[in-house]
Amino acid sequence: MLNNERSVNDHVILGKQVRLRSLRVHDEANVWSILSNPKIMLSMNRSTGSSYRRTERILAQLLSQNQRGSLHLAICLCNEEEKLIGIVSLQHWNCYKGEARLGYMLDSAYWHRGLTTEAVSLLLHYAINKLGLRRIEGRCRKGNTASARVMLKNGLLLERVLPRMDGSLEAGEDGIHIYGLNIEDHNQTI
Hints:
Blueprint: E1 13-14, E2 18-22, H1 28-35, H2 38-43, H3 51-63, E3 71-77, E4 80-94, E5 99-106, H4 115-129, E6 135-141, H5 145-153, E7 157-162, E8 176-182, H6 183-189
Parallel strand pairs: 5-6
Antiparallel strand pairs: 1-2, 2-3, 3-4, 4-5, 6-8, 7-8
Helix pairs in contact: 1-3
């Protein structure tokens, strides 16, 4: 959770299908389940390494009450108010520049329903209108077309491609696509 006066505390952001709420300690088992899913781990942009250690480290970061520069919210279905099915977040938040990086993951049992697209839309609206962010960046692996669609549907545009981990620019699954949304662009799409 973000540790300043702009945090959402226990406020809820409601959508048609999903609601966003603060992460809670009892969410740990659901977060662990999502993070330990091989489909989820393959789509994450982090470097390779021990999957167990990566999962443990990410879980600790997400559930930390004192992590500055980040806001992590639980994605829940409107009809199942408490069960966490995913997380949407703002990371690397720079208050002075009004910039943050978008992050999200959803339990694979809930994929292909538009839930992530709606959750990202709710967070972007909150980030721009309540937090005053002026630029939001999102990233996904080259082969993660579902994640790319979520960003494109929410107004983020492909800006650049980071080379593969081996430094080559040839096509490969480990190239990272960088998408960006500037507030001026977002206002023009409304």
